[in-house]
Amino acid sequence: MTAGPGDLLAATRGTPHGFRNAGPVTARALCLYTPAGYENYFRDVHAAVTAGAEATDELLAEFRSRYRTSSYPQP
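RE: above sequence
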């Protein structure tokens, strides 16, 4: 699915999903998480990368486990 300016997307709990900016222009998004708390996953990733860590699959899996989520297996 491709979204553009003003579009609204929703990913319900348990639905495999992901977000990425495939274009050359910086994108902005407003993400809402309920219940609160999962936003800290992104804060943890940001802090680790800022401190020099590489965002490997293993590192991200460690952070996801803190918030009871997992990666969707790639085919």
